[in-house]
Design brief:
551 residues; mainly alpha; two-stranded antiparallel ribbon; 68% helix; 5% strand
Amino acid sequence: MMINDTVVELSRWQFAATALYHFLFVPLTLGLTVFLAALETVYVVTGKPIYKEMTQFWGKLLLINFALGVATGLTMEFEFGTNWSFYSGFVGDIFGAPLAVEGLMAFFMESTMIGLMIFGWDRLSRGQHLVVTYLVALGSNLSALWILVANGFMQDPQGAVFNPITMRMELESFSALIFSHDAQAKFVHTSIAGYVTAAIFVAGVSAFYLLKKRHLELARRSFRMATIFGVLSTIGVITLGDALGFIGAHAQPAKIAAMEAMWDTEKAPAPFNLMAWPDQAKQENTWALQIPYLLTPLLTHTLDEEIPGIKELIAHNAQRIKNGIPAVEALKLLSANPNDAAALAQFNAHKDDLGYGFLVKRYAPDQDVSKATEADIAKAAQDTIPDVFAIYWVFRIMVGVAFLMLAFFILAMIYSLRNEVEKHPLFLRFSLWLIPVPFIACEMGWLTAELGRQPWTVYNLLPTWMSASSHSVQYMVFSLIGFVSLYSIFILIEMYLMVRAIKQGPDQHDHNAQPTAGSLGGSILGGATLGGSPAPVHAKAPIHTTANQEV
């Protein structure tokens, strides 16, 4: 059955929207849980109350983010069944396993332990509470692991075989599924990106307090720990990004070629397109600023390994489509007679290119691949290259932002270790403005991974056009608008609760408070403010309000 192309595109937009919204919450949760574990460890080792206050304050912000993240994430797993029914049937035996483990082992552990962490301070000993905090961090990162194992199978299917009789992928090796190079590298890369996000967030909020001369001891210590945490994490995320590029160069050459806007196969060592303006229709770059000899060592870690260009990949994939056509034809015969030995032999001879045979089915008359013309094959071959312009630039934004954050953290660490950070108010204001930047980087990374996988839902096996459910266009438009509206409300709620909690500050006797004016929503550059004007307090007066216990 041919699914309406508009329905497929709307299904993609809906899942992309829900995933992008949800992914705004995930990195901060991943990073804050580990940051809290580090803070509480210092508290248990030193016994200094300030570190307990820091852990409780940042834990309050984590709870807000975690609650909204759960609300946005619940619908995504249901979307596989509602909007991607063929995909769910095709890979359900593999894809369902890590998602089930994530729900049973990681999510429930994280949800249970975060309640104990927030409300167990007066009920648990220091050591017991520290173990709970570590379990929260472990649970959040295990949750990410299993989700990325599932996604890693979509990027580089390992540990499964296709059964031509049942027309389903079947799990062959659970260890191969878990320990695929893509899944493991992506897990570490994504987790560390969360640590960077949390470090920027903590540094930015701490900078706000330093500018406002409030909660100074908490702000100084938090800023210093965040900058050290951030330097190490940013170096790690850049290093793991290089590892993902190395893996992708071998597993997904079309994605890598698109990320580098590399149309022709260059003699090794190939030049690196530092900046370019790709034109996919003409299969060339309108202009490009190149660094000679750099791309080959970056992607292959050698000086002589050849990197195929887009034009070569298209020609290669056209041949794979031709080789996959007999596999699709054999499947049709096997569906009518599972005992057809000749059809099974034909399938086994061409099964490695089955997915490419599915690609041309979209263009073949009556979806009969035996009737596919050279023009149909050429169209399908063009489809094997993702949107070069989009991938090239979202990747460049992600990388550029990563190096910007590294430079920020290095400078911030130097200022903090020298106890000079408060002498640089412009730098503190810049820290505030930097809070959204790691979220942008994370979203760009997600887009690079997912757009670069097209035209596949399962790379080289199942095309996206075959994977969607057969809904009406009207239904998809209605549900897309509904999800975007609902998730936008969630984002506004998150921002409101976060801003209110930051404005209130930690629940403590603050001996550093000084009369201040300004607001959380005011001009950061003009007044370094974030919210409504707090009531003036005496420098040594304890701050106790009912609002302090509300969040």
